[in-house]
Amino acid sequence: MQNIVVVLDGTEHTAALVAELTSAGAQVTAIGQNFREVVAVMNHGVYPLVADLADPEQWPIVVARVEARFGAVTEVIDPADRLAARTAA
After folding, report:
1. SS (H, E, C) the chain
2. How far apart, in whole angstroms, are the C-alpha atoms of residue 45 and residue 31?
3. The domain containing residue 55 runs over which residues?
4. CATH code for the domain in which residue 12 is found
5. Which domain of life does the protein's organism represent (predicted)?
6. How many Å is the Cα radius of gyration of the chain?
């Protein structure tokens, strides 16, 4: 089973992507910067997490939690490049 982490960006496009991935059978973890972003995509197959990705210490914690629960992350989807912004800072 695919273990996909999606970094939410608050758009309908990304919410639809999360729904499509879960419908296809992937295990999806949705990472939002706030509770509102995460609640918008919660459904039967989504593991929701809230994290401040501008904080360099939080991303490794997120990955460790996801991998402890579901195994190795097979893909990270970050439509708004929030992770790239974090590593560039």
Report:
1. CCEEEEECCCCHHHHHHHHHHHHCCCEEEEEECCHHHHHCCCCCCEEEEECCCCCCCHHHHHHHHHHHHHCCCCEEECCCCHHHHHHHC
2. 14
3. 3-88
4. 3.40.50.720
5. Bacteria
6. 12
Would you call 28 exposed, middle or buried from its count of C-beta atoms within 10 A (0-12, 13-18, 19+)? buried
CA atoms of 8 and 59, how far apart (whole Å): 14
Per the structure, how many domains does the chain have? 1
Q: pTM for this one?
A: 0.90
Tokens of 45: 């197959």
Per the CB < 8 A criterion, the answer to whether 22 and 6 are in contact is no
- pLDDT tens, residue by residue, 9-39: 999 999 999 999 999 999 999 999 999 999 9
